[in-house]
Amino acid sequence: MDHGRELVETEQSVFRAALIDAGLLVDAGVDGLYQRSGAFERVVRGIEAHASRAAAGEGGAQYYFPPLLPRADFEHTGYLRSFPNLLGAIEVFKGGDAEHAELLKAVDGGEDWTARLTPSDITLSSAACHALYPHVPLRIPGSGLRYEVQGYCFRHEPSLDPARMQSFRMHEFVYIGEASAALEHRDRWLQRGLTALSDLGLDVTSEEANDPFFGRAGRMLAANQRATALKFEITCPVSSQDQRTAIASANYHEAHFGEEFGLTTETGGTAHSACFGFGLERIALALFSRHGVASESWPESVRAALWP
């Protein structure tokens, strides 16, 4: 292991210990899974409200989505093709008394009891906006549609870095309509996001980025995503001062979701979409890293922005 990586992992470990010692996070026993305290959630609620205010009344209809998504809708998102290593599917028990007895026998014998479960028609949601697209009008009006959505997301990437949780929330601002307006939405919200996060005293900057597409074909998709500047991330120090972490992202999806869900514009073309997402837990962690674990001692300007 190189020295730089050792330093980053040490910083992550120290930060994680400080959060747990302060009672902000409780280690749930699985890497990347935590219980959150009331003090932590108070900060998250403040970030939610701060994000909504940044929309200046242009956020659109608000929806709060559960962490579960119908499997049929999930398949249409394309996530299975691009990120199979990160997804999570739900299995359930569908047997009778005999199968239940076999299940308990496996549990008592220390065997893999999950082998006796059956895949359900539900998956864990991987992005907050995925639950939106199946329910928007198939014909998008000329002015486009805007939505403010929030939901729990799941990514199977266990880590001891507290900023890389397996279960986390995104607060997103989505536009669906003409291509030029979708791109303008992405760019305008990138600037709004930088301003909103700077107002919280965070050392933020925007960077061109790509999603962690899976496999050889994924590397080509990632290269194309960067070449066409489809995705930007807002980064700042969180678990490490030497390695910046994405705490928000601005994405232009082109016609991907319009094609998958049959969305068309008034002119008859396939609808394009874009979204900007605030990573609520990561922003909260960035604030604790920047200003300390006691939010009551944060700078007055930060507290006023979160809790006016």
Automatic annotation (TrEMBL):
It comes from the Bacteria. It is an enzyme of class 6 (ligase). This is Amino acid--[acyl-carrier-protein] ligase. Keywords: Ligase. Residues 145-308 form the Aminoacyl-transfer RNA synthetases class-II family profile domain. Its EC number is 6.2.1.n2. It comes from Microbacterium horticulturae. One of its GO terms (molecular function) is ligase activity. InterPro entries: aa-tRNA-synth_II (IPR006195), aa-tRNA-synth_II/BPL/LPL (IPR045864). NCBIfam families: PRK07080.1.
